[in-house]
Design goal:
This protein has 1197 residues and is α/β, with parallel strands linked by helices.
Length: 1197
């Protein structure tokens, strides 16, 4: 007996057999290709209608994708064979109608009907009919006889009233937009209808693959055996209502009730069991799912938001757990173990052993011993001739080796994992003592097939699972706090934390994690547990710091951070041996950008000269700066030096788009993506798609100068492996370039940000300070004037904005902007589409009627020949959004712009869930080298490279990419649901995909809510615009202010130990302290924007003076954000401004402007306005601070 999963699309009314309440706003279901290809606006005409009352052609497309599995009324559905009418044997098949009963779904075993699965099936079921060859090209099984074999076998494994049916959504849902799978409900299978055959005009027919499965879930919990998770109800609740009732945000409450892959252990097994549209679920996986369902329902009851008899459903879960346990074999991997030691027909042997009398809870190894000894009759002659060879192999295997096999068969494992231990005698003793080494190794090898729970089932005594075959010493686990088990859990947690960006976790957070897990079984974690087991845990983990441990780290990452820290700092302290005699000052001042009469130009040039001298002198140098500060100019000037070029230059960037841009700076020097470079040097594992430290790799030594751009995108592993791939003894200059305020890398660590803040730390040795240059003056505005875009972006950087920058929020609210920034607001989903169209019309100077023609002209697609010659034009306007799936996501916005631009044609190609037409704007999604036409030259296409569809011919889209004029690349369409697509529409892209790119005009859509909205995400989005930004913000501009605060930084929330500056959260919701990223005061709830402000705030707290930090101040219709405000004895406002960068002309000018404003509204220095400032070396005078505090104290007390 097995359980089954059935995939369903997201539905806003609990899959009740009605059309969605708001079909237009449910874009999540479009992650399924059949829905995205067929759905139209007709659904909106029937919103909330019972589709059993609608003709089939008027039902929503999701009716064919189990979108109504909670249907209360039966309905009829007509099926047409997909090959009927195409001139083959299937032409005799007639449309066939079957009745879909209430509370049912259609189970289609797609996986087992694919040709890819036939070898696997034949290995286990040689009795099936042979595979019949299809007369045409197809990925699917052709012959009717074998199809019937598979359907009967699949149906036979599902038992009414015993099998459980789990309904799940893929990544398209509003609860967990980034998750790959989410369970929405589960119940018992009450019946499986007989296999249906197509009506036919001949004496033969074919079976329908669809099998009708009825289930026991009902809307009313008191009538139900099973349940739906109340996601829709939670989504409809007001945020404030949830906060008041539960003390949680809506996101936190949903997190507690959702059942997603991360909660199920993220194993590949469960992921596959929740795939293919419909698939079997093993008993062990079902136990894991049921345990998580129990926790979810307990959270629902605790929240008290949704009524109903949830206690009854908890009893159903407990009964189901007992039923599933009774069905589990104590040795689920017996056949896989035989396969691992070279036994063919292992599953046939297992079946014969069961037929010979081996019961469900018996030990099959006893029967196998009898088979090898000739004591067991063999009814199956298929493997009879091979038995002598198996017998010799079995006799040769040691007793310890046999015990290892029996132990391994207790866990649900694949043969290749079993073989790593069963065929390696050196591991026997260790494995028999501690089987959890399997789950630890899988976690650290990024192999997510086995986790701690997998091992638990085989080693924790449970008579309901193991019967008389209870685990025995030395591998048995007698307590849930066994150090072997908890070390495995800790290793797994640290490995999963890598995906969240953390290279380590605090002991306090780990204790909370383990305690929460143990609480499900009413077990307690002893005090100081991690310290008491340090000796055992240290075999796999590193305690930090060594003398007074506060955190744990995987050994691999401890070594990477230690190596990087020592190597980077050592190079930063060192000068190159061969000095270059380059007059950078003359070169910089001879630039056409230099204006000796402009103070800002002089300051920008001074900074650039400083950067060039640093890059020339240091063995490691870091160049940082925000958008428009001249990093490109510095690199171009550096690479124009013939002496540098003669030494050789290697240019590297993490993305294809950044590679192209860096290559343009090099003017003849080839740039590579880091992935390309690592592959060439042998430091990349294609099987795991992972950069690896390969002792046999070729260290690069062909150039003395290495420049790496967009370094903020590099994970700790990326940077470590990249430097390992360089022969650093041959590298004179290693130059790292980037903006640490941008999005952190996708993966563990933030090495570039940590390096920047370590080198910039004023407490460090001066020689380290000289290894970094931060360009502060915005070059872009020297000739064009103030940039509202960059002023707004400065609030989302990690630095204190210039004085006067606070007026940007008032200007945005009133519309009094300088020209490069435009702000529009939208209220809800229905308003967004109209707002986006209006924004495009205003930018293009057109109306809705001629938007298509004007937008086509702006993108260049009105003249394909001209665009082919200058494909960069396609990038002139770009819509950005934080996410993919909601109504404000890139998938829906692409549909909108595609509709308005009018590229629709009779001919299109399907790429995954999108219809792509000639002229459409597209984005490349993978790095590959492809031959172009007509030159037949091979070009490197890069992930993120934007282009357009030149034409469509014979199932191929002929594409031209920006940067590669007059060259076409053919891409075949992709129709499979889970197939990897090489391109997608790019009228709108996510902010993450835009990193490393910039565009003349950007339209940025920002929704008010979403966990993905962080300070770095918004900063990255704002700085993509070169000339114009149109900000489409939900509701109003003022909520955006909250996202400027340190608490909104995702970068600062990461744990690391770079440069031995241990940074670790105390719990998963707190923010760790890291120098330069977070400035926390004595008040743990107050974070400020600079180290100097920490000193001021702490002195105010010590003096017991009440103050507000950066509180919006309104007077005479004007708003501003003073650093510190106070209320004097007459209830008037006092302001204290700290001035950090008066040596920078741009900053000084902005302060003078703000001071003039203060004076105009009655604030006089020394009376009700006080100032302090940093000295040139960045220090602050404490005496000066105390004098101001004394004056303020006299005014407020």
């Amino acid at each position: 007996m097995k359980h089954i999963s059935i995939r369903v699309p997201w539905h806003d009314s609990n899959w009740n057999g009605h059309v969605c309440k708001n079909p237009a706003c449910n874009t999540f279901c479009k992650v399924l290709p059949r829905i995205s290809m067929s759905r139209d606006t007709a659904d909106c005409l029937h919103a909330s209608e019972d589709w059993s009352l609608l003709p089939q052609h008027e039902r929503p497309v999701c009716a064919s994708e189990n979108g109504g599995f909670m249907n209360q009324h039966s309905y009829k559905r007509e099926f047409k064979h997909v090959y009927a009418g195409k001139g083959g044997r299937h032409d005799v098949l007639k449309p066939t109608t079957i009745e879909i009963p209430a509370y049912s779904a259609l189970a289609i075993p797609f996986r087992y009907m694919s040709l890819d699965s036939q070898s696997w099936l034949s290995d286990r079921h040689p009795e099936f009919h042979d595979v019949e060859k299809s007369p045409f090209n197809s990925s699917w099984l052709y012959g009717a006889e074998r199809q019937l074999d598979i359907l009967k076998w699949f149906r036979g494994n599902i038992e009414a009233n015993d099998s459980i049916c789990v309904f799940y959504c893929k990544n398209g849902n509003p609860v967990d937009d980034e998750g790959r799978r989410m369970i929405v409900g589960m119940g018992e299978v009450t019946s499986v209808a007989s296999i249906k055959l197509y009506d036919t005009e001949a004496d033969y027919t074919y079976p329908l693959w669809e099998m009708v499965v009825q289930h026991s879930i009902r809307q009313e919990l008191q009538d139900s055996k099973g349940f739906l998770l109340p996601y829709n109800q939670y989504l409809e609740f007001d945020e404030d209502y949830i906060q008041k009732k539960t003390g949680l945000t809506k996101e936190e409450a949903l997190d507690e009730i959702k059942i997603s892959l991360d909660k199920l252990g993220n194993t590949e097994r469960i992921f596959n069991e929740l795939s293919y549209g419909c698939e079997f679920i093993s008993n062990q996986s079902m136990l894991i799912i049921l345990e998580n369902a129990r926790r979810a329902l307990e959270a629902v009851m605790k929240h008290g938001l949704v009524g109903g008899d949830w206690q009854l459903q908890l009893r159903w879960i407990n009964d189901s757990i007992a039923k599933v346990k009774s069905s589990i074999s104590p040795f689920p991997s017996f056949a896989e173990c035989l396969k691992a030691i070279g036994v063919n027909y292992s599953y046939l042997i297992e079946r014969d052993i069961l037929t010979a009398g081996c019961g469900k809870k018996d030990n099959p190894w006893r029967y196998y011993n009898d088979l090898m000894a000739g004591k067991l009759p063999v009814p199956n002659t298929v493997y009879f001739s091979e038995l002598p060879a198996y017998k010799k192999s079995w006799e040769y295997r040691s007793d310890e080796g046999k015990r290892v096999l029996e132990l391994l068969s207790r866990f649900e494992l694949d043969a290749d994992i079993i073989g790593q231990y069963a065929n390696n005698a050196e591991t026997y003793e260790k494995l028999l003592t501690n089987p959890y080494i399997i789950s630890e190794k899988c976690a650290q090898d990024y192999d997510n097939r086995v986790n701690t729970q997998t091992i638990d089932f085989g080693v924790i005594p449970d008579v309901d699972i193991q019967g008389e075959n209870i685990p025995t010493a030395p591998f048995a686990v007698r307590t849930l706090i066994d150090e072997r088990r908890l070390r495995s859990m800790t290793v797994e947690r640290l490995c999963s934390a890598l995906d969240d960006g953390d290279t380590l976790l605090s002991i306090a957070e780990l204790e909370q994690y383990v305690s929460d897990t143990l609480s499900d079984t009413n077990s307690l974690l002893p005090n100081d547990y991690f310290l008491t087991v340090r000796g055992f845990f240290s075999d796999e983990l590193v305690y930090l710091p060594d003398d007074n441990p506060k955190a744990l780290q995987l050994k691999e990452y401890a070594e990477m951070e230690r190596w990087l820290s020592k190597r980077l700092l050592a190079r930063a302290k060192s000068s190159v041996r061969n000095k270059l005699n380059v007059d950078w000052e003359t070169r910089a001042m001879s630039s056409s950008h230099y204006d000796k009469n402009n103070e800002n130009s002089r300051e920008a040039t001074r900074q650039q000269i400083e950067a060039l001298e640093m890059m020339t002198d240091r063995k490691l140098s870091v160049l940082t700066g925000g958008a428009g500060t001249g990093k490109t100019t510095v690199v171009e000037t550096f690479l124009s030096c013939s002496q540098i070029k003669n030494e050789g230059v290697l240019l590297l960037a993490p993305t294809g788009k950044a590679r192209v841009r860096l290559g343009k700076m090099g003017k003849g020097v080839e740039a590579q993506t880091i992935a390309q470079f690592l592959v060439r040097q042998g430091f990349f594992d294609w099987d795991r798609m992972l950069a690896i430290d390969n002792p046999n790799g070729r260290q690069y030594a062909n150039a003395a100068n290495v420049i790496i751009d967009e370094c903020s995108m590099l994970t700790t592993r990326d940077l470590y492996i990249l430097l390992k791939a360089l022969d650093l003894a041959k590298i004179n200059r290693l130059i790292l370039i980037g903006d640490p305020c941008q999005l952190p890398p996708i993966g563990a660590g933030r090495p570039f940000a940590d390096l920047c803040y370590r080198l910039q730390n004023k407490d460090t040795v001066p020689v380290l300070n000289s290894a970094i240059t931060s360009l502060e003056t915005v070059v872009r505005t020297i000739t064009t004037g103030e940039s509202d875009i960059l002023t707004l972006a400065s609030w989302f950087s990690s630095k204190k904005p210039k004085k006067g920058a606070d007026e940007i929020f008032n200007k945005m609210a009133t519309g009094d902007l300088n020209g490069d920034l435009q702000v529009m607001t939208w209220t809800d989903e229905s308003d967004l589409e109209k707002c986006l169209m209006e924004a495009l019309c205003i930018e293009l100077g057109c109306t809705e009627d001629n938007l298509s023609a004007v937008l086509q002209h702006r993108l260049g697609i009105d003249s394909i020949k001209s665009l082919a010659a200058n494909p960069n034009t396609i990038e002139s306007v770009q819509v950005l959004t934080p996410v993919l799936n909601p109504i404000w996501g890139s998938l829906h916005l692409n549909e909108c712009v595609q509709k308005w631009i009018g590229t629709y044609d009779k001919e299109f190609i399907q790429f995954s869930t999108q219809k792509i037409y000639p002229k459409d704007k597209i984005m490349q999604l993978k790095n590959e080298k492809v031959e172009a036409y007509p030159s037949h030259q091979k070009y490197q296409l890069s992930n993120g490279q934007i282009g357009f569809v030149r034409s469509i011919y014979k199932g191929y889209a002929n594409l031209i990419y920006a940067g590669i004029p007059n060259e076409s690349f053919g891409k075949r369409g992709v129709s499979g649901e889970d197939s990897e697509t090489p391109i997608e529409l790019a009228y709108s892209i996510t902010i993450h995909k835009s990193q490393g790119s910039d565009f003349n005009t950007v339209v940025l859509v920002l929704p008010k809510f979403g966990r993905i909205l962080t300070r770095e995400l918004i900063y990255t989005a704002l700085t993509r615009a070169k000339k114009k930004l149109i900000l489409l913000i939900q509701d109003n501009v003022y909520w955006l202010w909250e996202k400027t605060k340190p608490q909104a930084s995702i970068l600062a929330q990461r744990n690391s130990n770079m440069f031995e500056q241990l940074v670790a959260r105390e719990n998963k919701s707190s923010i760790p302290y890291v120098e330069g990223l977070i400035h926390r005061t004595k008040n743990p709830n107050l974070m400020v924007r600079s180290k100097s402000e920490v000193i001021i705030a702490n002195e105010l707290i010590s003096a017991d003076i009440k103050f507000k930090y950066e509180e919006m101040f309104n007077r005479d219709g004007h708003q501003c954000l003073p650093d510190f405000t106070f209320v004097d004895l007459s209830d008037e406002i006092i302001i204290w401004e700290h001035l950090g960068m008066l040596t920078v002309p741009e900053y000084k000018t902005s302060w003078e402007k703000k001071l003039k404003f203060y004076n105009s509204i009655g604030f006089i220095e020394g009376e009700n306005l006080f100032t302090t400032h940093d000295h040139e070396n960045g220090s602050i005078d404490t005496t000066e601070i105390m004098k101001v505090i004394d004056k303020i104290k006299n005014l407020v007390e």
